[in-house]
Amino acid sequence: MKVIEHCYSLETKWIDVMAKAMGGTVEGNFIKGDNETYIGTHFVLLMEERISAMLIDVSYKETVLLKYKNDLKRFVGLYFYMTNHNIDFILDKETSVVGKFDYNLTIIDSSLETDYAVNKGTGTYVICIFMDKTALKEYMDKVPRLKTVSKDVFNAEKNTIISMGRMSTESSILLNDFRKIPYDSFLFELYFRGLVYNLIGDYLDQLVEKKIIIGKVIGDDIKSIIASKALLLKSIEGIFPGIEFLAEQVHMSPSKYKKLFTKITGFSPGTFFSDSKLELAKELLETGQYTVSEVSDKLNYANISYFARRFSSKYGIFPKEYQSQL
Fold it and tell me: Are residues 252 and 192 in the same domain?
């Protein structure tokens, strides 16, 4: 497996280093490449003094391990993913999944070193936003609900900034609309700036609705939650295993396990499991190979009526009606 190692930062001086690592060519704010490893485009922009952003629109021609190591520890990365295949997120050999089925929004402190394994044939469309912690805190302080916790969120002795969840429907719409803008448009940079600020705003809106859990997280904690998520996904066709069982598997107390799982994923274990089950149900219906009743049985719902209610509650449409519209 080919290994590509580089770093990100708040400034955009690393664009030449990244271009060299990827085998691409710098053209203004763009890195363009078409070689044995990938074909695609990166676009890098300094938004303001403490915020920069990058677009990654790449298809990989071979399996690659991407290793990110940041010397600058004072920023937070917000990563919005759209992929045609899952990508493995790796921390000390423990693997989770980035993609449409698991999570597609990660918020990671730059002090955490992360690796991503991308398989041959994978197409990635990612918006990366790098924010100085002081800038993100200032944004949060403008929202009364967030201002009450922002001091602790950015206290490195009390809290580790990490979240692996799903982007909102609004963010997904923003990305899909932006993808229609051609790279050679003279308004491309303007639209990109608008996209980045809208994604930041939507992320803050989502934070208001969530319970923010303050706590230090060490590498072993993250590895344990990643392993637990993998276990839940392997069990997705069955019933929810229960908090006590899941906590026991990663050698934690039930209270600590539930707190860490919710902090890192943005969802309680039960919500993550039920939402993932519904995501799979939706995908199965989209294949056209299963009836609504067969999907309900395959995923161990109590009955088809219960499945229909849960599906409608999440997607705003009953499964039979959804399938008929495909």
Answer: no
Token pair, residue 203, equals: 């992320």
User: Domains in the chain: how many in total?
Assistant: 2
What's the token pair of residue 64? Answer: 């690659």
- Give the bridge partners for 2, in sequence order: 64
Q: Give the DSSP per-residue string, 217-258.
A: --HHHHHHHHHHHHHHHHTTTS----HHHHHHHTT--HHHHH
Q: Does some domain include residue 215?
A: no
Q: In this structure, what token pair is assigned to residue 130?
A: 């790098």
Examine the fold and report which residue of 209, 243, 275 is the final residue of a domain before the chain moves on.
Answer: 209
Mean pLDDT by groups of 10 residues along the chain of 326 residues: 77 82 91 94 94 94 82 86 71 53 77 80 92 93 90 87 84 94 96 97 87 76 84 92 95 93 88 92 94 96 95 94 90
Asked whether 288 and 302 are in contact (CB, 8 A), the reply is: no
Give the CA dihedral 208, 271, 197, 151, nearest 10 degrees.
40
Is residue 70 within 8 Å of 129, Cβ to Cβ? no
